[in-house]
Amino acid sequence: MLVTNGESKSYSDDKNAEIKDPRENLPVLIKYLLKFSDKLMPKHIPVAIKLAVSIGVMLTLIMSLLGAVIIHNQTKLIRNQITLQGSTLVQTLANSLGELITQAQMDDNKNPENANNSKFKPLDNEKLLTLNVITTRMTTSPEILGAVVYGAKGEVLASEGVTPFSKNAPFANQEKSYLDGNLKIFEWKWSHFARGDLSAMSFINPIELQNTVVGHALVTFNHDLLNRSIQNSVHSIIIATLLMILLGIILSYILGRRLTKPLYHLIDASHAIGRGNYNYRLPERRNDEIGYLMSSFNSMAQGLLQKAQVEKAFSRHVSPTIAKEIINNMDKLNIGGKHVHASVLFVDIVGFTAISESLAPEGVAKLLNEFYTNVNKISQAYDGVIDKFMGDCAMVVFGIPHEDENHVFNSIACAITIQKLMKIQNRHRESIKLFPIKFRIGVNTGEMLAGNMGSSERIQYTVVGDSVNLASRLCAVAPSDKIIIAEETYNLAGLRRKVIASSYERMRIRGVSNPVNTYVVQDLQEPYLQLSNKVIQTIMEEQEKEKATYE
């Protein structure tokens, strides 16, 4: 019990509370979309497709991550290569210019007028022309947009092509900020360049002479080449990634089909088992878990086949209803029973001893088998259960093992149908010069004990009690071709409207202290008579088919 703010609330109340769908709190549009998506989703998605989609998603994530790493590393590598190439080139240019300036100074020092002046002298026109030739040659390469040589005071000694400090360029008139005697590397863009948007990378390297900065060399590279190289690498990696993903999906689907093929065999086998085909077997040609599963399935099918065979054989020794009840309750096979209200029918062949003496053993067996067959088929039509066959007598129980509110009427209707069928068969026997077979039948209803009777080594599902004994006694005293019931049975509610019977005798029956008023049953009332005739017609048609099959 939970108490909060003076109020008590039971945990059981929470459990019994209605569980609401979490979708109810969602907006109407989202709920509609979810409902629409549920309708679009197929009810069955093969495992092969699920496997292909799962592996495809996994491969997409892995390859995308791997591609991103490769693209990042490749971009970094290309950028480093271009940076190294530009740095090396501008440094080489600076060294070459340094040697040129050194040579110029050496030439000046040979002049007697300049012998005492070791300072750097301005370059003459010939040296300046040489510098212009060098810068012009450098810009002939498509990778280099421009080259500039600056003097010690930042003046331009030689220039060719585009530089970040050109007129209208992004860094125009900012040379002094970058010409500080250190290596400079920077990227820049010129959005309104004459030939369109320009992307470039510039390198500035100092020119040193005798540990003194005497100028700077600037080389500008076309950054579009870098971008193009990166784009080509990215496109190649993306195409390779997509091909790998597509190949992975195809291979995973093929693998999924191969792996799920045994599952389809198992589904077919389960359907076959469900239809009662216990002879269905799976081929055991695998040495993996699926192979073990198939082997276990075959063992299960073999067990079901044996169970079905035992059940079929068992149901031929006892009633199929009783056999099914016993098999389904194997863990409850205890000796004992329960009190039930049921009906019992005994049918006996009149004069069987004399008949058996006049026939060969094969003839007696054939006669009994025909008798048992007829009784069994008619009993099944009226939900009766064959309790036992005792020589020339059969015992049929109605209302067990499952309750049947019409068991009284069904037992009497079964007796009348047996009587009518035997009369029809006797006419046929007389037409072929065979003696007729006469029956007497006793039926009684009342309380009795139903259950497993016997010992721990051998038991039988049957009924016992005074009501059963009275049915047996009524059969024993019944005249030939008559059906005898007790007055108590005939007085049960509603039976007189269904059955035609007349008062017979007040009999003293062995084992019963008081005389028993009896009735002889003559026929069924309409429309119940039609059902009896239909049962007889069905049985005779089946017998004709069996004869045609044997012939």
Which shape, going by the Cα principal axes?
Answer: rod-shaped
User: What is the typical, i.e. mean, pLDDT?
Assistant: 80
| CATH architectural label of the largest domain | 2-Layer Sandwich
User: Strand count, sense and closure of the main sheet?
Assistant: 8 strands, mixed
Give the total of beta strands: 15
- The name of the CATH superfamily of the largest domain reads Nucleotide cyclase, GGDEF domain
CATH fold call of the largest domain? Alpha-Beta Plaits
| Poorly predicted segments | 1-19, 114-118
Give a written overview of the molecule:
The chain has helices spanning 11-16, 28-40, 47-109, 125-138, 175-178, 223-274, 289-317, 320-328, 352-358, 361-381, 407-431, 466-477, 487-490, 528-550, and strands at 2-4, 7-9, 144-150, 156-161, 184-190, 198-209, 212-222, 336-349, 384-390, 393-398, 439-454, 459-464, 482-486, 499-507, 516-524. With 551 residues, it is of the alpha+beta class. The chain has two domains: 71-229, Beta-Lactamase (2-Layer Sandwich); 319-550, 2-Layer Sandwich (Alpha-Beta Plaits). The strands form three sheets. Strands 8, 9, 10, 11, 12, 13, 14 and 15 form an eight-stranded mixed beta sheet that branches. A hairpin with a 2-residue loop joins strand 6 (198-209) and strand 7 (212-222).
